[in-house]
Write a structure and sequence with these properties.
about 150 residues; Mannitol-specific EII, Chain A; 6 strands; PTS_Nitro_regul; transferase; protein kinase activator activity; EC 2.7.1.-; PTS_SugarTrans_NitroReg
């Protein structure tokens, strides 16, 4: 679900909107028939229901797309934390976005729960924040996943 081309370390993200736009740009090529604007709109519509900032500097924006044929994830660390209207009012510097086909509701919920659990682990988030490259961030996330 997460691929190296959808993993970015130390991204400059000046606002929640800019970060969601970047997620759209990274995810759309992996979702045939889906534009970066489709992804952005899906994420933005979900954010309007309530922030996906789960606390401790982490956000998990997510959305379902009728045009998506498979789940796709995007992982970003930000060079400077941004306001994401998180539940604990802390700025966010780790963003894990999840996009799934509209009809895969159960998988969507299970994946969100699993990612949220991992990103609530302080040793996991500390390691992700220390990643020095996109590849290191990707490798760290995948090694955390299998542990």
């Amino acid at each position: 679900m997460l691929s190296p081309d959808c993993t970015r370390s130390a991204v400059s993200g000046s606002s929640k909107k800019k970060v969601l736009e970047l997620i759209g740009q990274l995810a759309a090529p992996r979702l045939s028939g889906t534009t970066s604007f489709d992804v952005f709109e899906s994420l933005l519509n979900r954010e309007r229901l309530g922030s996906t900032g789960i606390g401790l500097g982490v956000a998990i924006p997510h959305g379902r797309l009728s045009t998506a044929n498979k789940p796709v994830a995007v992982l970003l660390t930000l060079d400077e934390p941004i306001d994401f209207d998180a539940i604990d009012n802390q700025a966010v510097d780790i963003v894990f976005a999840l996009l799934v086909p509209e009809d895969e509701h159960e998988q969507h919920l299970q994946t969100l729960a699993s990612v949220a659990q991992r990103l609530n682990d302080k040793s996991c988030t500390r390691a992700l924040r220390e990643a020095k490259s996109d590849q290191e961030l990707f490798d760290l996330f995948n090694s955390q996943e299998s542990s």
